[in-house]
Amino acid sequence: MADPSTYRPAPGSIPAEPGVYRFRDDNRRVIYVGKANSLRARLANYFQDVTTLHPRTRQMVFSASSVEWTVVASEVEALQLEYTWIKRYDPRFNVKYRDDKTYPLLAVSTGEAVPRAFFYRGPRRRGVRYFGPYSHAWAVRETLDLLTRVFPMRTCSKGVYNRHENLGRPCLLGYIDKCAAPCVGRVSVEEHREIVDGFVSFMSGHTDQVVRQLTRQMEQAAEELEFERAARLRDDLGAINKVMEQQAVVLGDGTDADFIAVDSDELEAAVQIFHVRGGRIRGQRGWVVERTEEPVEELIRNFLIQFYSDAVERAQAEEADEKQRVTRRGVDNFSHNPPKPGAAVPREILVQHLPAEAGEVAELLAGLKGAAVDLRVPQRGDKRALMETVERNAKESLRQHKIKRVGDLTARSAALQDIQEALGLEEAPLRIECTDISHIQGTDVVASLVVFEDGLPRKSDYRRYRIREAAGGGHSDDVASIAEITRRRFLRHHQDRLAVPDEESEAQTFADEQVEEMSTDQRRFAYPPNLFIVDGGLPQVNAAQKVFDELGIVDVTLIGLAKRLEEIWVPGESDPVILPRASQGLFLLQQIRDEAHRFAITYHRQQRSKRMRVSELDGVPGLGATRRTELVKHFGSVKKLKEASEAEIAEVKGFGPRLAAAVFGHLHPGAHDSMAT
């Protein structure tokens, strides 16, 4: 690995014009490609203090041994050249949006002499037309089962086809008329190709012609008293309509558009795209990629360029394959005309946020399509509602991705081992606890404590704390709050290792420590954690370590996890521990921290809502916090309290006629004056 200072270009040698740059390693392999509106300003960022760089960027500059650049005439040319070089060199530090392998596709092997339709997952190949992706595997099989009634094309594998060709008799699908049986010559190769062309045309969206043709044939059969044939055509038409109904109409104006949304955290980003053609959702795709320091706007820009450039390239390859087959068959044209490459880019591209350099991106997309492209953020109406749906799908995709990783036993074991090695622990941290503070400008300060055992949440051991005002009248800051929660958690640490204390001593501890603990059960912690995490950087970690020193705790490892770069801070160390971005251990630590944050936020909202509910009772003489809470609890809400009379208020435990009158007068100003009048 080379020091970036050894290959830093001389000052003033880098031009200030737009261009594209490449970082190469010792073997002259390109490891990163980027673009810049000003090469001088952009490249200077890579050669600043390396401790301020994003971990992925830091690893890249140390892996590289040289940097070179190419000046271009405009920012649009820079975007085009960046994409070309990424495709050519496949640099390992660039984020690449590959087709999501989790979504099934319906594929047609148009490159074969006798094409077949089949269920498919995996990377796309030349000579195959793909339709979808579908949300479920059963949706592909159901669509294929319905359409082979109308388009009885081959669906069997090559081995099955050859076997029945040698046997001279068709398979079961051939006997029930769901396959035209080209294997035994029931139809010729050319006739089967026409069936395939009709299938592909229908799946490409040309449905009206098929519906009209089936309707005309059904009516003609009925007029000729061929009722069995008419009934079969009626069933075929029903199958076609069922396939069309599966693609729900979401936009009544027949819009052709793609809807794109992103959800991200510090480590990863989920991208979702909905393809709407003719007002119907024709497909959905999703990607989860590693997140770098780039903002969401740049992430969307890079996605748009890569995705649509790849789509046009695939369409061009399919068009070339189709032309070769036409030439090979010796005909000028046939029933299926493949879509033009520019059709891969819709007229409208609606995004969650406008990408960086939106004007240049729109110009590049227009060049790919061969016509103007409307790139914008939907503001209202059905399109805005659909965008919100895409956003929810992106959030859910990222959440499911995290759950899948955390729930995998192998991944959890690797994560715990990563943490053990990074922190130099004697054994894997099987029990991990994490605390987080939540407040709004120092009000309603609360804290959470979550517990993970064997890499999975143990919700029965979750705790939540309400931090009260300090003696001086002010609220504790985050550092002081972390110290207070740490002290509360580990005050009875040595006793907790041996026994579970009774509820009376626990309640007394609450009062002594000015901390209210709320939990999902009444049990105390039976044993301490192997690893204790505080949400924050070095100040929070050092505050918790002081508490550890006071209480004599030496058998629990303490760390802090900072949000900005996911740095792991160890007490007394000036530099953080950096785990690789792809580390399972870092992912687990982030998951634990996020769960602590979620639990704290939930409790904070409950406390804030509770405070706001009784705020109308502030200022009543003689009414303290305890009686105020008792009053609202008795009536259920402030609204019902307002409907109560003085006598009903006086019936509440701890209330007399004088206090009841004060409450009633506060809620109904002027009521006593009007009664006196």
From TrEMBL:
GO biological process: nucleotide-excision repair; SOS response
Ranges of Basic and acidic residues composition bias in the record: 318-331
Domain GIY-YIG: 16-95
Pfam families: GIY-YIG (PF01541), HHH_5 (PF14520), UVR (PF02151), UvrC_RNaseH (PF22920), UvrC_RNaseH_dom (PF08459)
Domain of life according to the entry: Bacteria
Subcellular location: Cytoplasm
NCBIfam families tied to this protein: PRK00558.1-5 (NF001824), uvrC (TIGR00194)
UniProt protein name: UvrABC system protein C
The species this protein was found in: Corynebacterium marinum DSM 44953
Taxonomic path: Bacteria, Bacillati, Actinomycetota, Actinomycetes, Mycobacteriales
